[in-house]
Amino acid sequence: xxxxxxxxxxxxxxxxxxxxxxxxxxxxxxxxxxxxxxxxxxxxxxxxxxxxxxxxxxxxxxxxxxxxxxxxxxxxxxxxxxxxxxxxxxxxxxxxxxxxxxxxxxxxxxxxxxxxxxxxxxxxxxxxxxxxxxxxxxxxxxxxxxxxxxxxxxxxxxxxxxxxxxxxxxxxxxxxxxxxxxxxxx
Length: 186
Description:
Layout: H1 8-19, H2 23-45, H3 48-64, H4 76-96, H5 114-132, H6 136-147, H7 152-159, H8 163-180
Helix pairs in contact: 1-2, 2-3, 2-4, 3-4, 5-8, 6-8, 7-8
């Protein structure tokens, strides 16, 4: 596999390896996506220990749920980050009763060097570009759902908007994000 964004064919090969029980596939998946998952864990959970545990849980879930990955619905990285987000929110709800994660600045994450540093910059640039493609109301909706951990139902109730409308607007915003970064790994 090449360095940089995965091609759809490479993503499919990784998923097929996971489905076949090939431990090399999970190692390759971890090598490529472990750092972004860990960083999200630090941001949502706030401690290195919790982020490390979340990272392990995400890759275990990916191993077990590889059959649920659908390339028509998005990139492999998006699927993994969604698993990470959902597990982090579930953990917060279970352990603390908090229904929304509080973002933590990630000062404690070790510095990246060389290619990893360049990749981190590109990921940051891709995220900025993706958010810039959204309207203000779409950015707020994404922020509430993904960074504050609100469910579509909670947003619906708080904003007095039908649940179906919230879900449609979230889906539309996510499609815009995907299109803004087509061919680029987030």
